[in-house]
């Protein structure tokens, strides 16, 4: 009969703590007096997220499945628990001043961040398509609201409604895929789907192909891969910039993590075909993202479009279908999060006027080295990292991905990837030229920068991590390699 | 041909007809009413499969609550003269038609062929057949599926907070 102990509830301790934190924060918002509630909510969430990271760290040995195989906690889960919680923590720390400037309801902003983190944690530990679906939905619904948080800006509403409509639509695809897979394999559990596919190897029913294709569409949308990227420029531009930084890193990492687990564990026996499809998706994603980013005159849009290109590199890592590629993907996701958040924070600091709708111009960066040398140097590090130039972590990220691709026999793809990397140098370097070589334009400069002490700390931390991993890449690569051994 | 097959055929034809009507009507109110009819047919399918509880939910939630919301929104927007579609179908409409049609063909080819070894078939009287029973459903929901069930609760909480954040007036 039914046995509570067999559910292994202790394995989801970090997630339970996270929900506890969210509930406490909701109460804080209601109970505390008006002036103090924001601080209380933010403080409790910062402390809570640190506790969640500590809990994941100290329970990392407690691996195995929970809830009858619906959830699996392993090294892979641990890696993403730490990464996603850390990214959310950074965003929560830096948001306050910027968000207040946008007249956004701040308590709900933090709460929705926590709920979307909860959804992402479900995605990375799910071993059942049902849980992945619920995780994706929890994450996405929070994100839809976050994108539209600055309600008085039309661009924000537009981004949110587009993201919501297209997201709801792709959810239908994803669920349809799950339903068809259940119809074929008789289960939504990844391991049982894998067993079924191994059993019928060679004669996989057509319906299973359709199911895998629909599930792939769902993931491709969440990871903003071409041709399922149409929502991303509008959503990224309309969202408050802290949320853009968040969306282009954490949810993308969670989507790739679930993508990887589903296709490696469940659809591993069909890999010959889906790697071919992903090959094309990788090529168009890398190229298309670059072509769009080349033409942008807004730093925010440039970073948003280039994040599509970076998703293309990650697909290259994904489709190698071996340990080296998977480890390279984890490495890249972690370091990309650091450099992208850093770059977006500098963009927030330099931006003149958010409400004008014309902000984030390259012109604002003219002669930044003379105005704010440290900020310009930090941005230099982030741009070099994004372009993949040593001695930053971005170089090793690309290096590992493309060497994994070559090792798995995707030489042509690696060549296309390297060429795209070279093309992307153009627009990252352009910003560096503006900062270091252009004359300072004192008449049009904003008198002060949008910097708060916590932003300076986080920017410094990102620079430190990007350079540290750039000099000692083995630190992170060993961790990433250990994390993926459980999958292959 | 037994009674079940006849009922199924009638339901299938009506749902197909009303489904086509949903997408071809110019007046959104008619579209919604045909959508209600489609949902009723689905409820009929559930009854045929023995999932009586699901059928009741289908009628109460989808045909009832959600469709009323739809109608309410359409009437609030007050679209008296629906805008006319310009010219023929656009490139993307044609492409969408081809992709959707191709997918439908794949599904038909599959089901016309063999249902596959994995498709669970529930003979009447089998334990799984009792899934339509509310008591059985409750038991499964709070034991095997308790984790997804709890997550759904959190998902709804997130949605409520998001809706409040977007809709509530700023306290200034």
Mean pLDDT of chain A: 90
Uncertain residue ranges of chain A? none
**Main beta sheet of chain B, described?**
none
Classify the oligomer.
heterodimer
Give a count of the beta strands of chain A, DSSP E runs of length 2 or more.
Answer: 2
CATH superfamily of the largest domain in chain B: NADH-ubiquinone/plastoquinone oxidoreductase chain 6, subunit NuoJ
The best one-word shape of chain B is: extended
State the shape of chain A: globular
Give the strand order, joined by hyphens, for the main sheet of chain A: 1-2
- Roughly how many Å is the radius of gyration of chain A? 22 Å
Count of β-strands of chain B: 0
- Total count of domains of chain B: 2
Number of helices of chain B: 6
Enter the CATH topology name of the largest domain in chain B: Four Helix Bundle (Hemerythrin (Met), subunit A)
Radius of gyration of chain B: 21 Å
The level of helicity of chain A is: over 70%
What separation lies between the terminal Cα atoms of chain A? 34 Å
CATH architecture of the largest domain in chain B: Up-down Bundle
What features would you highlight for this structure?
heterodimer, A: 488 residues, mainly alpha, two-stranded antiparallel sheet, 74% helix, globular, B: 172 residues, Four Helix Bundle (Hemerythrin (Met), subunit A), 2 domains, 6 helices
Structural commentary:
- The complex is a heterodimer of chains A (488) and B (172).
- The mean pLDDT of chain A is 90.
- Chain A has helices at 13-31, 34-58, 75-101, 106-125, 129-147, 154-185, 190-199, 206-222, 232-238, 241-247, 250-266, 271-294, 299-319, 323-350, 368-371, 373-387, 393-407, 411-436, 453-471, 474-484, and strands at 64-66, 71-73.
- In chain A, 74% of the residues lie in helices and 1% in strands.
- Helix content of chain B is 71%, strand content 0%.
- Chain B folds into 2 domains: 1-80, Four Helix Bundle (Hemerythrin (Met), subunit A), CATH 1.20.120.1200; 125-172, no CATH class.
- Residues 122-126 of chain B have low confidence and may be disordered.
- Chain B has helices at 3-24, 28-48, 52-77, 91-112, 134-142, 146-167.
- Chains A and B meet through α4, α5, α6 and α8 of A and α4 and α6 of B.
């Amino acid at each position: 009969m039914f046995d509570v102990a067999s559910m292994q509830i202790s394995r989801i301790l970090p997630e339970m703590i996270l929900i506890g934190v969210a509930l406490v924060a909701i109460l804080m918002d209601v109970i505390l007096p008006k002036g103090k509630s924001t601080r209380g909510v933010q403080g409790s969430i910062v402390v809570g997220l640190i506790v969640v990271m500590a809990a994941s760290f100290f329970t990392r040995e407690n691996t195995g499945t929970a809830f009858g195989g619906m959830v699996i906690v392993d090294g892979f889960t641990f890696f993403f628990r730490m990464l996603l919680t850390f990214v959310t923590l950074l965003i929560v720390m830096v948001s306050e001043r910027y968000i207040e400037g946008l007249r956004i309801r701040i308590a709900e902003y933090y709460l929705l961040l926590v709920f979307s983190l909860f959804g992402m944690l479900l995605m990375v530990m799910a071993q059942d398509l049902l849980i992945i679906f619920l995780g994706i939905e929890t994450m996405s619904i929070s994100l839809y609201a976050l994108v539209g948080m600055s309600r008085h800006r039309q661009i924000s509403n537009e981004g949110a409604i587009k993201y919501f409509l297209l997201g709801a639509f792709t959810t239908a695809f994803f669920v349809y895929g799950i339903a068809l897979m259940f119809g074929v394999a008789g289960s939504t559990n990844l391991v049982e789907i894998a067993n079924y596919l191994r059993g019928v190897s060679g004669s996989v029913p057509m319906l299973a192909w359709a199911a895998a294709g629909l599930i792939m569409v769902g993931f491709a949308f969440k990871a903003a891969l071409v041709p399922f990227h149409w929502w991303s420029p509008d959503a990224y531009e309309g969202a408050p910039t802290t949320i853009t930084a968040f969306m282009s890193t954490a949810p993308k990492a969670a989507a790739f993590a679930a993508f990887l687990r589903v296709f490696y564990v469940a659809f591993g026996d069909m890999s010959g075909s889906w790697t071919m499809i992903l090959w094309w998706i990788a090529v168009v994603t890398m190229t298309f993202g670059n072509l769009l980013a080349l033409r942008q005159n807004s730093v925010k849009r440039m970073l948003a479009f280039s994040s599509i290109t970076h998703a293309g590199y990650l697909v290259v890592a994904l489709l190698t279908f071996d340990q080296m590629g998977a480890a390279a993907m984890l490495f890249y996701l972690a370091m990309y999060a650091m450099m992208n958040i850093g770059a977006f924070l500098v963009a927030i600091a330099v931006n003149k006027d958010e409400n004008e709708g014309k902000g984030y111009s390259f012109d604002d960066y003219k002669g930044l080295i003379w105005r704010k040398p440290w900020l310009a140097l930090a941005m230099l590090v982030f741009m070099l990292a994004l372009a993949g130039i040593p001695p930053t972590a971005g170089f090793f990220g690309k290096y590992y991905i493309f060497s994994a691709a070559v090792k798995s026999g995707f030489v042509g793809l690696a060549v296309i990837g390297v060429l795209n990397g070279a093309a992307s140098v153009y627009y990252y370097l352009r910003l560096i030229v503006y900062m270091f070589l252009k004359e300072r334009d004192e008449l049009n400069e904003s008198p002060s920068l949008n910097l708060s002490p916590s932003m300076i700390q986080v920017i410094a931390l990102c620079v430190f991590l990007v350079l540290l991993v750039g000099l000692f890449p083995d630190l992170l690569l060993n961790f990433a390699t250990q994390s993926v051994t459980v999958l292959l | 041909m037994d009674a079940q097959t006849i009922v199924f055929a009638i339901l299938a034809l009506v749902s197909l007809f009303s489904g086509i009507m949903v997408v071809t009507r110019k007046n959104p109110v008619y579209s919604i009413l045909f959508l209600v009819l489609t949902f009723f047919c689905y409820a009929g399918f559930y009854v045929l499969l023995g999932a009586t509880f699901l059928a009741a939910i289908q009628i109460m939630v989808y045909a009832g609550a959600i469709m009323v919301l739809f109608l309410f929104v359409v009437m609030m927007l007050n679209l008296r003269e629906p805008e006319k579609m310009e010219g023929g179908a656009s490139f993307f409409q044609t492409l969408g038609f081809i992709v959707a049609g191709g997918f439908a063909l794949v599904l038909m080819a599959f089901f016309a062929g063999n249902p596959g070894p994995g498709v669970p078939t529930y003979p009447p009287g089998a334990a799984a057949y009792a899934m339509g029973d509310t008591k059985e459903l409750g038991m499964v929901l709070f034991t095997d599926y308790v984790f997804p069930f709890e997550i759904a609760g959190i998902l709804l909480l997130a949605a409520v907070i998001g809706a409040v954040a977007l809709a509530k007036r700023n306290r200034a």
